Amino acid sequence: MCRLLLCSNKQMTAIFAFINFVSSHSFCLILSLVFLPVSPFRMPPRRENPLSNAEMADILAQHMAAALPNIITQVNQANNNQNAPYNFKSFNSANPLIFSGSEGATGLLQWFESIESTFRHVQCPDNRKVEFASSVFQKRALTWWNGIMRDHGAEVALAQTWAELRALMMREFCPRHELRALEREFDDLKQDSGEHRAYIDRYEELSLLCPAMVTPVDKVIEKYIDGLPDLVQDIVTGSNPTTVRQAIELSATLTESHIRKKKLFRKGDPRPSDKTAPAEPKEKQVEGSKKKKHKASQNCAINAQEKQVAPNQPAQPRKRQNYVGTAPLCNNCNRHHLEQEQCHKCTHCGRLGHLINVCSYANQAAANPAAVQARFPPGSCYNCGDLTHYRNNCPKLVNIPPARG
Predict the structure, then answer these.
(1) Residue range 110-129: average pLDDT?
(2) How far is residue 110's CA from residue 207's CA, in Å, rounded to a whole number?
(3) Cβ neighbours of 398 (radius 10 Å)
(4) Is 38:44 a contact under the CB 8 Å cutoff?
(5) Is 276 a domain residue?
(6) 149-172 as b/e, with b when 16 or more CB fall inside 10 Å?
(7) What digits encode the pLDDT tens for the residues 78-113?
(8) Contact criterion met (CB below 8 Å) for 236 and 250
(9) Where are the transmembrane segments (predicted)?
(10) Cα–Cα distance, 351 to 401 (Å, whole number)
């Protein structure tokens, strides 16, 4: 009976239910025992006085007391088989995801989700989660974990809870400067037109990596709605969703509706800016051509005026270059030439130092014939004043030696 006291509540309930069943059906059991076939060679002696119900109950109670230890032993053995020691073979059979430490913040989050799913799938006990999770570390993660066990001891390191190991890994493989970058990205996260699925995926990743930005629940909903397009944001805000899942479902429905109406677009979808602009009416085309012609005529008039004004503008004096030859400077004509050569003398004005092609008086005569006529009488040569010929046949101009370079 001591073993009976050690039974669990479920076991005790089952035993008492069985006893009650037997007690309530004792008469049926008696009948079944009476009509059982008995070997003719071992015929029990016939009793003239049948057993009463009380006597039958006492007999059954004695048999149950004798059978209970065996029943309890069998139940305990079944429980021990279910709680068999958990080993690496069971864990590795689920193909846990490897972690090397170079996956970044997003890769770390995905590894957390994968390994926790493996724990649930294989029913890993809490006191062995750290041991089995550390068995899939490789490269940088394995080096880091070996350092933890060296500094604190293997027993202390493995005695941590899974939550403590998660916190250590977040500090090591997702440092503060990376978290700040993720927080800035989370703060600027917006849905790109119709890319609703991409927005939800990134929002859920960043909300797990930056929990401070989405606490409490009201802040989670507000942060999600702030990143939606204006067409969707107003309607979702007006619906006052109580959970972020309600906001996600409503925004997904509205986004799909606006995509069908060509108000939002997914990547690769043609947009109005990509299409050719519609042709303008003929009236506008004629009006535009008239404006172009008028503008072109104005430009031509301005260019003609510039061409007409340009010859009357004074010529810019040319900058005189220094002499680089070897001939000496002549004191008479103030030019460089050899002694056996004649001085440069203008046949127009008779002065030394220049020729007629650069004579300032000749240029004035060509530019202002009235001044020349005032100096020479009419019908005379404008070059020398002789009345027997004109300037184009002037012998002085014909006999002019060519200018030296």
Answers:
(1) 85
(2) 13
(3) 9
(4) yes
(5) no
(6) eeeeeeeebbebebeebbebbbeb
(7) 655 545 556 777 778 888 888 888 887 778 888 888
(8) yes
(9) 12-36
(10) 15
Would 163 be classed as within a structural domain? yes
Number of domains observed in the structure of the chain: 4
Classify residue 239 by its DSSP letter.
T
CA-CA distance, 157 to 153, in Å (whole number)? 6
Helix (H, G, I), strand (E, B) or coil at 238: helix
**Spatial distance between the Cα atoms of 354 and 351, rounded to a whole number of angstroms:** 7
Angle at 43 between CA 42 and CA 48, to 5 degrees: 150
Same domain, 145 and 188: no
Query: What is the structure's pLDDT at 227?
Result: 82
Cα torsion 151, 153, 156, 157 to 10°: value is 60
Q: Which domain holds residue 254?
A: 178-267
- Average the pLDDT over 153-179 and give the result: 84
Instruction: Kindly state whether residue 149 falls inside one of the protein's structural domains.
Output: yes
Identify whether 52 is part of a domain: no
Indicate whether 134 and 66 sit together in one domain.
no
If asked whether residues 152 and 184 sit together in one domain, one would say no
Helix boundaries (H) for 83-103: 88-92
Cβ density class 286-320: b for 16+ within 10 Å, e for less: eeeeeeeeeeeeeeeeeeeeeeeeeeeeeeeeeee
User: Residues 186, 218: one domain?
Assistant: yes
Please name the amino acid found at residue 312: N
Report phi then psi at 192, rounded to 5: -85, 95
Look at residues 12, 141, 128 and name the one whose alpha carbon lies nearest to residue 71. 12
pLDDT at 70 over 70: yes
Q: Are residues 353 and 401 in the same domain?
A: yes
The CA distance from 2 to 7, in Å, is: 9
